[in-house]
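Protocol step 4 of 5: obtain the predicted structure for the target chain.
Materials: sequence only (see below). No template structures provided, no constraints applied. The aim of this step is simply to have a reference model before the mutagenesis design in step 5. Sequence pasted as it appears in the construct record:
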Amino acid sequence: MKELLLIVCAYLIGSIPTALLISRKFFGIDIREYGSGNMGATNTFRVLGSRYGTIVMIIDILKGMAAVALYNFLPYYLHNELERTNFMIGLGLSAVVGHIFPIFASFKGGKGVATLFGMIIAIQPVIAISCVGVFLLVLFLTRYVSLSSILGALMLPICVLWIWNEHEVMYRVFALLVASLVIFTHQKNIGRILRGVESRVPILKHRDRRKARRK
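Step 4 output (structure tokens):
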């Protein structure tokens, strides 16, 4: 019963509509009516700019971390590593579901990537650093948050299954599930990237201006 209550709390944490609250507070708009219509960091970067996009991304990452940390309320999990890991994954995934289908925003949320990263940071920080490193590198090279998210997520099963060769079955299933979920929620973005019409986030504009002048 206590586990179920914490799972619900994790969902409610994930349901906090960060992008919606910021867009209404500072711009008087509903972020879901602009850009891709998505309530996540990617669309916030696109519509509101890098400053507010970064704020939304950080808060959404913290949502995942906070949800996973709820296991501390049950002393049993503090001394049982396997059970703790399984419960942490359950809490994190509940927060991700809350972000994608937030009860506080008519169940129309974001794609859950930032919250997923927060969840991974709380469970496996070393692997999370690898995923974030890939994300930042791809973002620097392309300015596509969607492509960065997809490749960052694909890095997770690569790390778990091959680089660190994690033997825990739950970790393996979790890694594959995360990568599949991110690809599934980015189907439209993948189509736009292939057609060459995906929007780039407004960062590193000075780099683009230098390139334009050289031409």
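Step 4 remarks: The mean pLDDT is 88. The chain has eleven helices and no strands.
Proceed to step 5.
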